[in-house]
Lipocalin-like (Epilithonimonas bovis DSM 19482), 107 residues
Amino acid sequence: MQNYFKFLSLLICISLSSCKAIIANPGKPLKDDALKLNQWYEIQDFDAKIHKIKMMSVDDKSVAGISRKGDTVSINKKQIREVKKVKIASSIVVGILAITPFIFSPN
């Protein structure tokens, strides 16, 4: 039973970290209507720094949001390398579907 708990914990961690939709990357340019206000995004700039922000404003030159610490973050659109949207609901569904066979297995 202890091994199942460890495996379940690992599976949940992996599924929560892996279900992200890529909004923009070097091969897929960022469109103005792709980012929605009051949604959480992970934005990576060309310095390889990742900003996890709640989007507050988008204009022609930059995007601005608030980090989890409450700091205001503004990033020039030309400095954005990749944008990902975290999808927690789909992560939970994937985790449940992956765990179900282990719960109902005869062993």
Observations:
- The two ends are 11 Å apart (CA to CA).
- DSSP finds two helices and six strands in the chain.
